[in-house]
Amino acid sequence: MSHHLPSASRAAVVTVALMAIATLSGTADAAPVPATATASDLAPEVLTALQRDTGLNPDAARARLAADKTASDTGSTLRKRMPSTFGGAWINEGKLVVGVTDTKSADAVRAAGGQARLVWRTEGQLDAVKSKLDANATAAPKTVPGWFVDPASNSVVVKSRPSDFRAAYSFAAASGADMTAVRVEASEESPRPLIDVIGGNAYYIGSGTRCSVGFSVNGGFVTAGHCGTTGASTTQPSGTFRGSSFPGNDYAWVQVAAGNTPRGLVNNYSNGTVAVAGSQDAAIGATVCRSGSTTGWHCGTIRARNSSVSYPQGTVSGLIQTNVCAEPGDSGGSLLAGSQAQGVTSGGSGNCSSGGTTYFQPVNEILQTYGLTLVTGGGGPGPGTCQNPQNTYNGSLTSNQSAYQPNGGSYTSNASGAHVGCLNAPAGTDFDLYLEKRNGSTWTVVAKSDSPQNVENINYNGTAGTYRYRVHAYSGSGSYTLGVSKP
C-alpha cells in the first residue's frame, strides 16, 4: 500500500527542494531499537574543548555527546532495517531525525525513539543523483566549490558563488542529474588543501613541507593524500609514503622507520592528549573536535557526509563536511567524535577568527583501502592488521543467519588493548560484525560494524575479559573469512 505526504509537508518539500509529487512505497521492521549508548568513553580534553567552543557546562556536554552516540547508533540500525524507504538521518537540537518515504517506516522510526519526516526520495536515490555530479567533476566551474547530499532538505546541494548560479545549474544539468532533486546554495567558500598543517604531531615531507599525523596505525600513521605521493620520504618521524591518493580521494599512509613508536593518542594542545578508542562513524549533526598545530583544538558539528569538494587540483568525493574551523598548517590532522576517530583533515575555507567550513577524509575508508588497523588506547602498536591477523576463521551463512567465532565459542584476553576483527563476505552480500563481551552470565555488544557492505572492520580498545564475535548475514548467502587479533 502506498502512502502520500500530508498537504502541509508536501508544500514544504516542494518549496525547499523543488521536487515533483511522486508516490513511493516500502516496508520496514517496526521493532524498536534499544538506545543503550553512554558517555563512558569521553576524554576530559574533549569535554573541555566542547565547553569552550559551545558554552555548554560539563553535565550538558556529557549529555550531548552521549545523546549523539545513541542517535548515531539508532540511525545506523534504522538504515539497515528499511533500505528501500530510508531517506537519511541527522541530529537536530539533540534529537535524531530520520527521513522516510512511507508511514509504516515512520512508525518504526518513532518506535525507535526518533522523529520521522516524510520525504520524497530515499538516501540511495540521493546518492545516485550525487554520483552523476561526481562523474562529471572535471567539468565543474570554478564558481562551484562543491556539492553534497543533504538529508534534511531531501536534496543534493550544489554550492555556488552568488554571482553565477546559472553555471551551477548548467553543470548539474550537463551531468545528467535529476534536476528536481538538485538545490543550488550560495557559498563564498574557496576550499584549498591545508598543506602546511599538523594535526596531532608535525612531520615534514621532502625539502620541508609540513603536514600532520592523522591517526596512528600498525607500522605508521594515516594522513592526507595531498601531503605527499607514494614513495616520498618524511622526517620527524622518519618514514615513507606507502600509499597516497589525491585528488579523487585525499588519503595516504606513512610507514615509519624503526625507533618511531605509533601511539593511539591525539594532541589536544592543552599540554595533554586524547586516547583513541576506535573508529565508529558519528551521525550528521554529531559533535566533533579537531586537532591541528596552527589553530590547536577546536570543536563543532558534522554538517554532511559524502560531500564532494572542488579544489584547484581536482575534485575529492566522499568527505565529511563540518563547521569546525581550520587554517593552513592543520592539514592531515585528526577529527574525533568523543574518542572515536572520524577522519583526517583535507581542506576547507575560512579561518578560526571568523569561522569556516572544513572537510575530512573518513578514516575507515583509509583503513579498508590499505588493510590497516588503528592503534588505540594510547598504547603501542596493536596486535595485528587486516592483512596479517593473528588468527583466521572461516564459515558459511545463509541470509538472516548468525555464527559465533572463534569456532562457536569465545576467547579470553588477559590484558587491555585493541581487539581487531576483519570480516570479508561474498560480493553483493551484506554481512555484519559484532564484538561481544561477557558480563557475568550475559553477553554485551561492545563494538559493531554494520555498514551495507560485504566488508566490515572492528577496532575496539577493551579491558581484560572474555570476548566473542558474532557474524550476521543481513542479506545474501555464502562463505566468509574473519581475521581476529587480540591484545
Automatic annotation (TrEMBL):
Q: Give the highest taxon in the source lineage.
A: Bacteria
Q: Which keywords are on file for this protein?
A: Disulfide bond, Hydrolase, Protease, Serine protease, Signal, Zymogen
> Where in the sequence is the signal peptide annotated?
1-30
One short Pfam name that applies is Pro_Al_protease
Key word Protease present in the record?
yes
UniProt record similarity statement = Belongs to the peptidase S1 family.
Protein name per UniProt: Streptogrisin
Q: What is the protein's species of origin? A: Kibdelosporangium phytohabitans
